[in-house]
Amino acid sequence: MTDPTPTGPARGPSDDTPTERPAVPQYGEYAAPGTQPVVPPQQPQAESTGSAAESAGGVGAFVGGAYPQVVATFTKYEDAQGAVDYLSDEGFPVQNVSIVGHDIRTVENVSGRLTKGKAASRGGLSGLWFGLFLGLLFAVFVPGVQIIPALLTAIVVGALWGALFGFVGHAMTRGQRDFSSVKTMEAGRYEVLVRGEFATKAQQMLTDNVYK
To answer: What are the boundaries of each domain within the chain?
Structure first.
């Protein structure tokens, strides 16, 4: 007699053994033919901060991803400088700040009338200091030279040559510039710009201060 055949669903060899899953390629590896390659997720890029921009070699309001914003406007440079100095004293990261001047112009302030005598005296004074410098060089580097006579000689010669050049130089203008002046460069207004992510804090600080 034969044993009765057991009834029920047939059991395959894979029911008792764990199923082997296909190997998944890791980041940077090539995928097997017929499979999709694994693409690593993109990491969000952090916004550039003041320290990061400074380490990269750039400072000021125009460095970084955010656009600079105007937080204060002044008509004098001294006031704009005072505002930035206040931010620095309060611990604000001033490497994110820029002072921008608009409507740049050259201003020449006339100090007085310039005659041939004044031109000669100014030239003599400049030559005196130059002669003093040369006399010190001779006294230090030339052996056997007496210091006092060398200095006096260099000062007198330098003053005479300076006065001569000043007189001749002014005489060559033939009276076309008989005045002395001082030239400066100024701007019509000065704006304090701060990098975008720091602008709100800087504006609030300046609002509470007398500079705003």
So the answer is: 60-104+187-207, 111-185
- C-alpha to C-alpha distance for 118 and 115, rounded to whole angstroms: 5
Instruction: Compute φ and ψ for 85, nearest 5 degrees.
Output: -65, -35
What distance in Å separates the CA atoms of residue 31 and residue 26, rounded to the nearest whole number? Answer: 9
d(C-alpha 44, C-alpha 18), whole Å: 39
**Cβ-contact 74, 189 below 8 angstroms:** yes
Q: How large is the C-alpha radius of gyration of the chain?
A: 40
Nearest to 98 by CA among 191, 193, 187: 193
User: For residue 198, what are the CA distances in angstroms to 66, 89, 202?
Assistant: 10, 16, 6
Please give the chain's pLDDT, 212 residues, in tens: 445 544 545 454 445 554 555 554 443 444 444 444 444 444 444 344 444 444 444 688 888 767 889 999 999 999 999 999 999 999 999 999 999 999 999 999 998 888 888 889 989 999 999 999 988 888 888 777 788 888 888 899 999 999 999 889 888 888 788 888 889 888 999 999 998 888 889 989 998 875 44
